[in-house]
Design brief:
The complex is a heterodimer of chains A (about 110) and B (about 110). With about 110 residues, chain A is mainly β. Helices cover about 0% and strands about 60% of the residues of chain A. In chain B, strands 2, 4, 5, 6, 9, 10 and 11 form a 7-stranded mixed β-sheet that branches. The chains are: A mainly beta (about 110), B mainly beta (about 110).
Amino acid sequence: DQQVKQNSPSLSVQEGRISILNCDYTNSMFDYFLWYKKYPAEGPTFLISISSIKDKNEDGRFTVFLNKSAKHLSLHIVPSQPGDSAVYFCAAPVSDYKLSFGAGTTVTVRA
Amino acid sequence: DAEITQSPRHKITETGRQVTLACHQTWNHNNMFWYRQDLGHGLRLIHYSYGVQDTNKGEVSDGYSVSRSNTEDLPLTLESAASSQTSVYFCASSESAGELFFGEGSRLTVL
């Protein structure tokens, strides 16, 4: 069973506008959540995280919102830039040091 | 700078052949992981290790094996390659709970 789900495989947004990526999870006991970014032919890189005791974490243009009652988190990118075109994965720790990843959302930022 | 390297970056093999993908990290991390990336599935955990001589199965471990004889290396072996194992493989490492550091990936094609 996939414990972390990203139901939108792709997102297209105009440069300068907001990108909103969504992620749902099934286990209310997750301590934190992470977002990774992946460019073609490269490995994923850590982007931003949020603890389960918070409902928002901001880092520059990137903000993560956590809604524990809905078991939902979202990543906002404002403003979107062409360099943000990538695949974004949300992830959560299923046990010890293991992370479970969602299927990913491909973001395309149009000029 | 510390890093994690994978080799080969690209490999084409035939069904039934044994294949080994190498992973080497210079962070001196205890935790190492192998994931595969497939469209629609995101990153799925194959095997992982929390230290020398420790190996564990992930969610898609059938047909794969790993060994951990030192801290730096976690080679992934496909005992008898199958077409279903055509994928992009990522090695990752971590020292503590949270952020994983990924290699650049190994693209494997099984004909």
